[in-house]
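in:
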């Protein structure tokens, strides 16, 4: 394809970009000149302050010379020596008029007034005036500022001190402004009194009114200023600490040259930007049409509309870009179709998946349609995968999907929920129609399944229900269909239809799972204690801690209900922590009361996989001052065989820490004698199933006798639980059992009730 002069057009676009760069440069120059003007203004104020200090020093020297002329006048000295008051006053007036002084005070060496224009009490003390580090000082007198000098009058000895002062007023400030090029103001920050200033009346009033917030007021009025302490110089003798000298200047006047420069730069930049804008506009008009077309195409692609082809008939880069867009449109359309298919279908069987089935059910329910859902479960399909491999399992799933598609009519949708579950959704189906379908499915699925000349036996169980009668949402429909399929498996039938109330047990389990964490956290659980007695003499040896839960909504929740759920949801560790803590607290209290009882605590299979179990139980016992030997940790035989190696390791660690280990429900978990030999146990607890009928069953007696003999040979003690009759107790005595517990002696009791039972039982034993 022939490429025309598109590069020249790009150069025009770069011109516009260059204009933008110029704008940024202008901003940088503007900032630089602004900062430079601020620095220049600051330096000028500093220079003005230094010039003022030098001028004040020169004025002080002039005042010193004028004072010395007066004190060396022979007539003035003679008048003071002779105490001729009229002559002194005449001399002072003449001299003051001659040199322009505004304050004259003559004092004796002792500080007594001889002649004065102002009261000496308004001045600093004579000692301060004569000992000042400089010859001329500033002082405030009656809200006026004077620059004074004090010189001795000798004839030839010291006969007086003469103090002369020049007023620091607005004229003085104006004079200083002419010399320093900065406005000068003498201001009391506390009272707002302006002693002298070169400012105009409006600015003078502004400073007086805003003396407490001077810096902000100056900034608000666009005034740059330096504020210096009046007493900060050794040339000032004053007791007013808030008296300041303010050097100020108008920012606009001071920075006028910089503003002119900035305006020139702005003019140049605006002209350049206008030219660049016009150039970019002309260029944009030539290239905007294809860009607009491509932009619209991109928006449609982004919105998922791939129907309209993208075509620009041009022999330049835009034409090439149009062809690329068109290729991309076609590729995206194909891939989206694949993605949507994969999203809504099972890749193995090609059937609609759970997402698609849920969407279909939702649409049917929302449109008020009725129908049926049939869920099929392949029994023990996991065993097929384990025995024959994944490849065989996948092929069998594909074969099942093929048979299901062939078995149903067009009104049924066949889907694969995943794993061993298939689902059929029939819209506008009646009960006779679904019953007919169940019959067909049972027949079709019972036929042999041949793969590579091998026949496989597969069993199916189905659950079905009507919608929206049985449920009005897709998840509830599928869940209840699964409940029905599981019920069919338990009853060993092909299909079970849903009836109201079948999912109450599921809902109760769900409620238990939701309520259990808060019950543990809020300590709404209880511990009951069942006594363990010596089989031979009936003495109470200890107790077994048993967990109880009574909930306001759920009622009594049995341990066999919530313990498995706690293991499934990960709450078992928190539950174990609470049980151990509460049980050991109670054992500590009993020991402090003099009841030397042992305590048995039950552990679950998951507790044996908890790496911190040993440290937790050990620390809990030590914190309460309990001996590990007084605590027995019980685990069921079935919990041990879940992971024998891990169980043996953990139980060994607990036994090494001093705790006793009991194997609970012995005889029901199918543990081998080889495992029993390896278990680090101290006692065996015979399951109640062998004890309840032991008085009348010779088989139970034989099993219990052999178990007791085996345990004693392995140096294990035996505990028989579930004693409900005296006859059973007597048989166990004869068989040599060590410990017994059961309802015959006492049901599990709360701690306070157990203590009452124990005291009553011990009195009966002692009286017997």
């Amino acid at each position: 394809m022939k490429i025309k002069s598109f590069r020249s057009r790009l150069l025009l676009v770069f011109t516009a970009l260059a204009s933008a760069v110029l704008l940024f440069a202008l901003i940088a120059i503007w900032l630089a000149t602004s900062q430079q003007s601020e620095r220049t203004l600051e330096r000028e104020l500093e220079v003005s302050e230094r010039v003022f200090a030098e001028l004040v020093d020169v004025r002080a020297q002039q005042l010193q010379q004028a004072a010395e002329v007066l004190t060396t006048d022979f007539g003035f000295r003679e008048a003071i020596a002779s105490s001729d008051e009229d002559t002194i006053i005449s001399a002072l007036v003449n001299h003051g008029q001659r040199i322009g002084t505004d304050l004259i005070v003559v004092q004796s060496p002792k500080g007594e007034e001889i002649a004065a224009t102002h009261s000496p009490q308004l001045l600093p003390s004579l000692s301060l005036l004569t000992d000042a580090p400089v010859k001329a000082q500033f002082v405030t007198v009656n809200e006026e500022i004077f620059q004074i000098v004090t010189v001795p009058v000798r004839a030839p000895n010291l006969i007086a001190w003469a103090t002369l002062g020049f007023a620091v007023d607005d004229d003085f400030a104006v004079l200083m402004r002419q010399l320093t090029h900065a406005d000068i103001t003498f201001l009391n920050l506390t009272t707002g009194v302006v002693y002298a200033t070169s400012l105009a009346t409006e600015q003078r009033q502004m400073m007086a009114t805003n003396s407490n917030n001077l810096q902000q007021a100056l900034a608000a009025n666009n005034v740059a200023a330096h504020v210096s302490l009046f007493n900060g110089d050794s040339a000032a003798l004053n007791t007013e600490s808030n008296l300041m000298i303010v050097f100020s200047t108008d920012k606009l006047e001071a920075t006028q040259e910089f503003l002119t420069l900035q305006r020139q730069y702005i003019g140049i930049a605006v002209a350049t930007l206008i030219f660049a804008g016009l150039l970019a506009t002309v260029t944009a008009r030539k290239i905007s049409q294809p860009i607009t077309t491509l932009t619209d195409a991109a928006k449609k692609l982004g919105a998922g509309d791939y129907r309209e082809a993208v075509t620009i008939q041009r022999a330049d880069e835009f034409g090439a870009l149009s062809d690329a867009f068109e290729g991309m449109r076609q590729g995206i359309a194909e891939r989206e179709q694949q993605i949507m298919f994969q999203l809504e279908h099972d890749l193995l069987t090609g059937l609609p998946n759970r997402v698609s089935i849920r969407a279909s059910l939702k649409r049917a329910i929302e449109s008020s349609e009725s129908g049926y859902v049939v869920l099929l479960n392949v029994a023990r399909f996991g065993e097929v995968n384990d025995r024959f491999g994944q490849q065989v399992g996948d092929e069998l799933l594909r074969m099942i999907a093929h048979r299901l598609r062939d078995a149903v009519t067009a009104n049924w949708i066949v889907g694969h929920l995943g794993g061993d579950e298939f689902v059929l959704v029939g819209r506008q189906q009646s009960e006779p129609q679904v019953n007919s379908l169940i019959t067909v499915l049972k027949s079709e699925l019972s036929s042999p399944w041949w793969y590579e000349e091998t026949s496989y036996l597969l069993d199916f169980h189905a659950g079905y229900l009507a919608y929206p009668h049985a449920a009005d949402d897709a998840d509830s429909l599928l869940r209840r269909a699964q409940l029905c399929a599981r019920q069919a498996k338990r009853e060993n039938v092909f299909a079970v239809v849903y009836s109201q109330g079948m999912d109450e047990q599921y809902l109760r389990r769900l409620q238990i799972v939701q309520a259990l964490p808060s019950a543990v956290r809020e300590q709404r659980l209880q511990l009951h204690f069942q006594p363990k007695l010596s089989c031979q003499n009936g003495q109470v040896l200890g107790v077994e801690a048993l967990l109880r839960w009574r909930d306001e909504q759920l009622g009594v929740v049995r341990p066999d209900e919530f313990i498995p759920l706690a293991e499934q949801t990960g709450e078992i560790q928190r539950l174990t922590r609470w049980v151990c803590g509460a049980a050991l607290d109670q054992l500590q209290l009993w020991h402090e009361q003099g009841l030397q009882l042992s305590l048995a605590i039950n552990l679950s299979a998951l507790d044996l996989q908890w790496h911190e179990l040993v440290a937790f139980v050990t620390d809990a016992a030590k914190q309460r001052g309990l001996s590990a030997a007084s605590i027995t940790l019980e685990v069921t035989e079935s919990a041990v065989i879940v992971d024998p190696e891990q169980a043996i390791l953990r139980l060994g660690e607990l036994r090494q820490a001093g705790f006793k280990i009991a194997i609970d429900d012995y005889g029901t978990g199918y543990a081998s004698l080889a495992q029993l030999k390896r278990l680090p146990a101290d006692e065996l607890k015979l399951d109640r199933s062998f004890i309840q009928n032991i008085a009348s069953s010779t088989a139970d007696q034989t099993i219990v006798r052999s178990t007791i003999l085996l345990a004693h040979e392995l140096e294990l003690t035996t505990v028989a639980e579930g004693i409900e009759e005296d006859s059973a107790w007597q048989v166990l005595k004869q068989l040599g059992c060590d410990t017994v517990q059961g309802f015959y002696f006492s049901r599990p009791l709360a701690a306070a009730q157990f203590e009452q039972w124990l005291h009553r039982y011990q009195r009966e034993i002692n009286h017997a």
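note: The chain has 25 helices and 25 strands.
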